[in-house]
C-alpha cells in the first residue's frame, strides 16, 4: 500500500528541490490534509502539487514499473522525463521532497483487517491502489535498477529470440498462462478465436444485447476454418457530447496491404479530439464528409463471409464502429497474462516482432500500423505456437521494460536503464535509504545511495526524523512479521465473510398476505441483489437480502428501518455476529475515508443515464469520473453507478439533485473505494450459517494476552500513530508514498 502527501513548496529544477502530493498504494494513495476542501477555497492563488488518478485502470492496480514512472517524474519533471502513463502529477515543480515509507511484511489484507486501527492512513491518503506481489527484489523494481539477469537487447526480427529465450534462466512453462490455456502444441486459427462466452465476458458487442440494439452486423456468417482470411482492424476515436465516436478506421488484409483507411466525421459535437492518441485534429477532420454509416456499408461489402477480424482490445473498435462480428482474435487476450491483465500493443510489437510502433516523436498513433501489427502478432502465434511464446518469458520482460524504457526521446537522463538513482545523480543529489541491518537489499550497495542500517524499527524511526530533511529523496523501510500462510488464508476467509454479512440485511416482520413481488422490487431498488430469501422461522415472515455492494445494504437500512411497508412497521438490520458488532463504527469510518469523500453511489440508473447526465453536465460542477459497472456474463450495465467529484460539497449538491423529484434515483455517499471492489472480486464470496463461529472463542486470559503489544492489531495502531507523527514533521511540499508490498506469495 502506498500513500502520498501534499503540501506547498518551492520549485526544483537542476539541483533544486520540488514539491509533493499525497498518494497511497495498496495499491497507491495520496495523503492530503484533513482541511482539503477548505484549503482549496481559501488558497486559490497558491499552486500546489496534486495527484490525479481519475482515469485509472478499472482493476486499480499499480505495477512496480508504473510506480517507478511516477518517482522518476517527481524527481526531474516534464522537462527531462515523460509524464507517468497512469496518473497526472500537477505542478510537479512545486514538489520539494519525495519520501517513500515501506512497511515490509504488511499487505492490503492487513490494511482492511485492521482498518479502524490504521486511522491516519485511511483519512490522510486520498489515493489507494493495489500492487502485484513483490518480486525477489522489490526495491530494485520500484527504483528502476537494472536487473543483471536481463540482457538489454530486444529481438531485431520476427524470427529472432528474446533474451529470456536464449538465456539459462529457469522458466516453469507449466504455470505460464498461455500454456495453461492453449497447451504446448501449435494451434490452428479456429482455436485462437474468442468463444461466445469469452466475447460476453470481455464486453464485445453481440446480437440480442440491449446495449447493441442499433449495432449493424457484418453479415459474415460463413463457416470458419483454419484457412479463413485474417484482417487487421484498428480504429481511432474522439470524445463527443455523446461519448467516444469513430474518427478513423484502418483495415489491413493478411498480405499486409491496406484495404481501407478512412477518416470519419462523428455525428455529434466533438469536445476532445484526443489528438495525442488519435493524431486527429480539427483541421484534419474539417473537410471530411464520410460518416459512420458509410464505413459500415463498405465493411459489409469488403469482408468475405468467413472473415476473421484481428485487433488489440478489439471490443472497443467494434463498439466505435457500432458493428457486430462473430469471428475475432484479440491479441491482448491471445497473449494471455495472469489475473486478467493485458500486454500493451507497443510492448508486444517490440518483444515479439522487434519493431517500434506508437513512437513518441509522432503525433498520435498510426491506425494502419497498429492494424498491421496485430495481424503480424496473430500470424506469429499461429506459426510458432504457445510453447515458443511461453519460452520468451514475456511477463518478466514486460516488468523490466515497463520500469526501464523511456516513453520519449527527451534529452538528459532518458536511457533504457535509467533509474531513480541516476535521475538524482543527474541533478547532483543523493537518495537516503533507512532500513534494518537484516533487510538490506541491492539498493544498499548502489552508487549514489546513502544507506543507514539500523538494529530495529524504533531506530529506523529515530534516524528518519533526523535524516529525512537532509535528502530530497528518502526510502524508509520498516519490517514486520508477516502473517503465516495458514493465518493469511484464515484472515482472507474472515474478511470475505465479514463483508458478506455487512452487505446483508434482514427486514420484517411482514403480514402473511403481503405482496412478495412488490417487496422484492422495493429492496432491489437500493442496488444489485445477490440473494433474497424468505425467512419463515419467525412468527411473521421476514426477508433476508444479500446485496452485491455495501452501499445498497446501508441505503436499505437508512431508507426503510422503522417505516410502514405493506401495512407493517418493519425493522431493517444487519445480522448480529461477532464480525458485525463494530459494523456501525466501520461504516461511519468508511464514509469518512479520504478516498470516498467526493464520491456518491446511485441506484436505479438506466442504460441512457450516462447520456442524460452528459446532457446536463453544466449542473454537476466538479464531476471527475463516472463508473458504470457491467455484468461480466451478459455484458449489460448494472443498475447502479458511482460518480466522483472534486470536492465533498460538489458531491453533496449532485446527490441532492439526483435523488430529487426530477431524477428520482436512490443514492448516498460511497463507502467502498474502487481498489477494494477490485480486491474483493478476487476473493471468492464466503457465507456461513448464523451463529457459526469462525474460530473457537478464547478463554478470558487468552483474550487479554492477545491484546499485548506484539499483537498485529496493537502493532497496526502503534505504528500508524508513529508514522502519523513522522508524516506531520515532513517539510511542506513533500510527496509521500506508503507501500504495503505484502510477501512473495500471492495473498
State which percent range the strand residues make up: 15-25%
Number of beta-strand segments: 29
Biggest beta-sheet profile: 7 strands, parallel
Structural class: alpha/beta
Runs in which pLDDT lies below 50 for 5 or more consecutive residues are 1-45, 147-170, 405-416, 689-697, 703-710
**Distance from first to last alpha carbon:** 14 Å
What's the arrangement of strands in the largest beta sheet?
A: 7-2-29-6-18-16-17
Rounded Rg? 27 Å
**In one word, what is the shape?**
globular
Average pLDDT, to the nearest integer? 79
Proportion in helices: 25-40%
Tally of separate helices:
28
Explain briefly what this protein structure is.
This is RNA exonuclease 5. Helices cover 33% and strands 19% of the residues. The chain is α/β, with parallel strands linked by helices and 747 residues long.
Structure report:
There is one protein chain. The chain has 28 helices and 29 strands. It is globular. It has 747 residues and is α/β, with parallel strands linked by helices. It has a 7-stranded parallel sheet with strand order 7-2-29-6-18-16-17, with helices on both faces.
Amino acid at each position: 500500500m502506498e500513500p502520498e502527501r501534499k503540501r506547498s513548496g518551492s520549485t526544483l529544477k537542476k539541483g533544486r528541490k520540488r514539491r509533493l502530493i499525497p498518494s497511497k498504494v495498496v495499491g497507491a494513495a495520496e495523503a492530503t490534509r484533513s482541511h482539503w476542501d477548505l484549503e482549496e477555497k481559501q488558497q486559490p492563488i497558491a499552486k500546489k502539487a496534486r495527484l490525479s488518478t481519475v482515469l485509472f485502470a478499472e482493476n486499480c492496480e499499480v505495477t512496480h514499473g508504473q510506480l517507478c514512472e511516477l518517482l522518476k517524474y517527481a524527481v526531474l519533471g516534464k522537462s527531462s522525463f515523460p509524464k507517468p502513463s497512469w496518473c497526472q502529477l500537477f505542478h510537479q515543480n512545486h514538489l520539494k521532497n519525495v519520501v517513500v515509507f515501506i512497511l515490509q511484511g504488511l499487505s492490503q489484507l492487513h490494511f482492511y483487517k485492521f482498518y479502524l486501527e490504521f486511522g491516519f492512513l485511511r483519512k490522510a491518503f486520498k489515493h489507494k491502489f493495489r500492487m502485484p506481489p513483490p518480486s525477489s527484489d522489490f526495491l530494485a523494481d520500484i527504483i528502476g535498477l537494472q536487473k543483471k539477469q536481463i540482457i538489454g537487447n530486444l529481438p531485431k526480427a520476427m524470427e529472432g529470440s528474446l533474451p529470456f529465450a536464449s538465456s539459462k534462466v529457469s522458466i516453469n512453462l507449466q504455470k505460464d498462462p498461455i500454456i495453461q490455456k492453449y497447451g504446448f502444441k501449435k494451434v490452428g486459427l479456429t482455436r485462437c478465436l474468442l468463444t461466445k462466452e469469452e466475447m460476453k465476458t470481455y464486453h464485445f458487442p453481440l446480437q440480442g444485447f440491449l446495449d447493441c440494439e442499433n449495432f449493424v452486423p457484418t453479415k459474415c456468417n460463413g463457416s470458419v476454418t483454419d484457412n479463413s482470411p485474417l484482417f487487421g482492424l484498428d480504429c481511432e476515436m474522439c470524445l463527443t457530447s455523446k461519448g467516444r465516436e469513430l474518427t478513423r478506421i484502418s483495415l489491413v488484409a493478411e498480405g499486409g496491404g491496406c484495404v481501407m483507411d478512412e477518416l470519419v466525421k462523428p455525428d455529434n459535437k466533438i469536445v476532445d479530439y484526443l489528438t495525442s492518441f488519435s493524431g486527429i485534429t480539427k483541421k484534419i477532420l474539417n473537410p471530411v464528409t464520410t460518416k459512420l454509416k458509410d464505413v459500415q456499408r463498405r465493411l459489409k461489402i469488403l469482408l468475405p463471409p468467413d472473415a476473421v477480424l484481428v485487433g488489440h482490445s478489439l471490443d472497443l473498435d467494434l463498439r466505435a464502429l457500432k458493428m457486430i462480428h462473430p469471428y475475432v482474435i484479440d491479441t491482448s487476450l491471445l497473449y494471455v497474462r495472469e489475473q486478467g491483465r493485458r500486454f500493451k500493443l507497443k510492448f508486444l510489437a517490440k518483444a515479439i516482432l522487434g519493431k517500434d510502433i506508437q513512437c513518441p516523436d509522432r503525433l498520435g498513433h498510426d491506425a494502419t500500423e497498429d492494424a498491421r501489427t496485430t495481424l503480424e502478432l496473430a500470424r506469429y502465434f499461429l506459426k510458432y505456437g504457445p510453447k515458443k511464446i511461453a519460452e520468451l518469458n514475456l511477463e518478466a520482460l514486460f516488468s523490466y521494460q515497463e520500469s526501464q524504457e523511456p516513453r520519449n526521446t527527451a534529452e538528459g537522463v532518458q536511457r533504457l536503464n535509467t533509474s531513480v538513482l541516476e535521475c538524482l545523480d543527474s541533478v547532483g543529489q543523493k537518495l537516503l535509504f533507512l532500513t534494518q541491518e537484516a533487510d538490506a537489499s541491492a539498493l544498499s550497495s548502489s552508487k549514489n545511495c546513502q544507506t543507514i542500517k539500523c538494529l530495529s524499527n524504533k531506530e529506523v524511526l529515530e534516524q528518519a526524523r533526523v535524516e529525512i530533511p537532509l535528502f530530497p529523496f528518502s526510502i524508509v523501510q520498516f519490517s514486520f512479521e508477516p502473517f503465516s500462510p495458514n493465518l493469511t488464508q484464515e484472515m482472507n476467509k474472515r474478511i470475505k465473510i465479514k463483508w458478506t454479512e455487512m452487505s446483508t440485511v434482514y427486514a420484517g416482520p411482514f403480514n402473511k398476505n403481503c405482496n412478495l413481488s412488490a417487496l422484492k422490487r422495493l429492496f432491489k431498488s437500493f442496488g444489485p441483489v445477490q440473494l433474497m430469501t424468505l425467512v419463515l422461522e419467525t412468527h411473521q415472515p421476514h426477508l433476508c437480502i444479500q446485496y452485491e455492494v455495501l452501499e445498497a445494504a446501508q441505503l436499505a437500512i437508512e431508507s426503510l428501518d422503522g417505516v410502514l411497508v405493506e401495512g407493517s412497521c418493519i425493522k431493517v438490520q444487519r445480522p448480529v455476529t461477532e464480525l458485525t458488532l463494530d459494523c456501525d463504527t466501520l461504516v461511519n469510518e468508511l464514509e469518512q475515508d479520504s478516498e470516498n469523500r467526493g464520491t456518491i453511489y446511485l441506484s436505479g440508473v438506466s442504460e441512457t443515464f450516462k447520456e442524460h447526465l452528459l446532457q446536463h453536465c453544466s449542473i454537476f460542477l466538479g464531476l471527475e469520473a463516472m463508473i458504470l459497472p457491467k455484468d461480466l456474463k451478459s455484458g449489460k450495465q448494472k443498475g447502479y453507478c458511482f460518480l466522483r467529484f472534486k470536492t465533498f460539497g460538489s458531491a453533496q449538491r449532485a446527490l441532492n439533485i439526483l435523488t430529487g423529484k426530477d431524477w428520482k434515483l436512490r443514492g448516498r455517499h460511497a463507502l467502498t473505494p474502487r481498489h477494494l471492489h477490485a480486491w474483493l472480486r478476487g476473493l471468492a464470496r464466503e457465507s456461513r450459517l448464523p451463529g457459526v463461529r469462525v474460530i473457537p472463542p478464547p478463554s478470558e486470559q487468552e483474550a487479554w494476552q492477545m491484546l499485548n503489544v506484539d499483537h498485529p492489531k496493537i502493532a497496526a495502531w502503534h505504528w500508524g500513530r508513529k508514522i502519523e507523527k513522522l508524516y506531520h514533521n515532513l517539510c511542506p511540499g513533500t510527496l509521500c508514498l506508503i507501500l504495503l508490498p505484502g510477501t512473495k506469495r500471492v495473498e
